[in-house]
Amino acid sequence: MIYIGVREALANWQATIIRSLHMAFLGYLIGYFWFTVTGDRSYMLYVIVAELVMFNRARVSWEVSKLIRTGRLDVWLTRPGSLYSKLFSIFMGRVVTGYFLSLLLVFPMFLLFGMPNFWYLPLALLAFVVEYSFSVTVGYLSFWVGDTQPFRFVVDKIKFLFSGVVVPLEFFPGWLAFLSKVLPFRFMAYVPAKAMVGQFNPIDLLIGLLWVAFLYVVALVVEKKGVKKYEMVGG
Amino acid sequence: MGVFSVLRGVSLRVKKREFLGVVGPNGSGKSTLLRSILGIVTPDEGSVKVLGKDPFKDRSFLKEVGVVFGNKSGLWPYVPVRDSLKYIASLYGVRDADSRIKRISEELDASPLLSRLPRELSLGQRMKCELMAALVHDPSLLILDEPTMGLDVAARESFLQYLSLMNERGKTIVLVSHVIGDMDRSSRIVVMGNGRLVFDGTPKELKAIVNYRTIILHLSEPFGGKYVVKTRLKEGASVDDALKLFSSKGIKDFEVRLPSIEDVLVHLYRGMK
User: Fold this and answer.
1) How far from B173 is each of A9, A221, B36, CA to CA, in Å?
2) Which of A125, B180, B190, B248 has the maximum number of C-beta atoms within 10 A of its C-beta?
3) Cβ pair A48, A28 in contact under 8 A
């Protein structure tokens, strides 16, 4: 089922290369900044691994929003299964393929800054699923609001802040640290990246899985209400 | 329906193995009718049953329905057609997808298209692929929304011919279009206007609504063979009397035409205004 997404990702390999190079450059800059500030070289590796996960995220909210606004959703609704699950298989194929391509492209950076612990690679999958479930729900807002772009822009910034891609979450002051712990965003990059640089907490995995279950239920409820609201008037 | 009414007092029962054509001008509510049948648009009042199920409560009926949207592709532009079809087949739990795809593609003369990307295909080729996608799970009901929009005459003809074949094989077909020519093969036509059914009957009954005749006179002699005159007999006037009159004037080359379905629709739409 994920084959469609894999084919799409491979067809857009140029985009993956550009995204990976962009990510490698940003990762190097941000990582170097935290290395300079803390004197801890492991931040170079942490930021690169975190960026790898975040830059290959599903970006599903925009596409869902487009499906709803253009009425192309009709096609999806006339095939069996929930919209969530149909989109999931396609987006996961796309995301996982893009992730592995990026991993290959930035591999030389690992030779410079140290090898991540690849045993924790499956945690990237947890990050993708949390991000997918959250983003698809944001995309569903188009059932009620015509243009969700401003909303998506704000959500993206919050995601970047609380996922630990720019600022590792341990540097957050009191109340911000609390917020980062109670929100699901840290599972989108921080938790898998920390695990891959050697700081894995099994409780995080458990909490992450609970978030997956919770966001899945929220997405399905919003989808059900949204589809009822959906009315594309035609000819 | 919703903020404003799109459909009003529509009552329609489609029999098994029927080929129903739904025709109407833009904004007449035909696509909304189709979306209601598919359970996409929830009516404020009334009920819909498809294959014995309520499409708003029980979506399992979709396994028995194939849908083609003329202006909305169900394929992925960067994925070979065969792979898209296999994915769609998997949604319906089709086990012998390969052999099924092979058979439909051969029937539609579309085997060479299977390895191509939808974005490389012409509109006619793409519509064949969309039809394959709708038939891959062998549905008993086929619903098509403006599938011939933009197709050339040959592509349109072969598309409609295949629909006829599907109907002969026992599939129920609901074809929505604003092109009346698409309805030539349907066994029943429903005409919509302003969200209502303004006609429901056979193509023959539709034509009988307007009982005027058009006579086309080819004025060969004694008018020098230059002129063709199209004239219309008033309702109730005798065709025989008219032909006798023309013959007595030396006009031997003429043809009598019954009103086309287009003429009837114009008549119906005028009546609606």
Assistant:
1) 37, 34, 16
2) B190
3) yes
- ipTM, 2 decimals? 0.80
The helix/strand/coil state of B53 is strand
Global pTM value: 0.81
Q: pLDDT tens across B210-269, in order?
A: 767 777 777 766 666 667 777 777 767 787 888 888 888 777 777 777 666 677 777 777
CB B132 within 8 A of CB B110: yes
At the second CATH level, the architecture of B19-202 is 3-Layer(aba) Sandwich (3.40)
Asked if residue B222 has a cis previous peptide bond (ω within 30° of 0), the answer is yes
Q: Are A177 and A186 in contact (CB under 8 A)?
A: no
- Residue A147 CB: number of other CB atoms within 10 A? 10
CA dihedral B239, B240, B241, B246 (to 10 degrees): 90
Contact A129, A151 (CB under 8 A): no
The answer to whether A79 and A67 are in contact (CB under 8 A) is no
Other Cβ atoms closer than 10 A to A115:
11
The token pair at B173 is: 């077909």
Measuring CA to CA, how many Å separate A176 from each of A51, A168, A169, A183, B88?
A: 21, 12, 9, 11, 45
Sign of CA dihedral B8, B11, B17, B20: negative
B interface residues, A as partner, C-beta within 8 Å: 1-2, 6, 24-28, 30-32, 34-35, 38-42, 59-60, 62-63, 65, 67, 69, 72-74, 76, 78-80, 83-84, 86-88, 90-92, 145-146, 178
Distance from CA of B218 to the nearest CA of A (A): 40
pLDDT in tens, B38-71: 888 877 788 888 888 888 888 889 999 999 998 8
Q: Does A3 touch chain B (CB under 8 A)?
A: yes
Question: Which residue from A128, A181, A188, A165 is spatially nearest to A47, judged by alpha carbons?
Answer: A165
Q: Are strands B188-193 and B172-177 parallel, antiparallel or unpaired?
A: unpaired
CB A79 within 8 A of CB B136: no
Each residue's pLDDT tens digit, A100-120: 999 999 899 999 888 998 888
Closest Cα in chain B, distance from residue A102 (Å): 20
Taking an 8 Å cut-off on Cβ atoms, the answer to whether A7 and B65 are in contact is no
| Domain spans, chain B | 19-202, 209-272
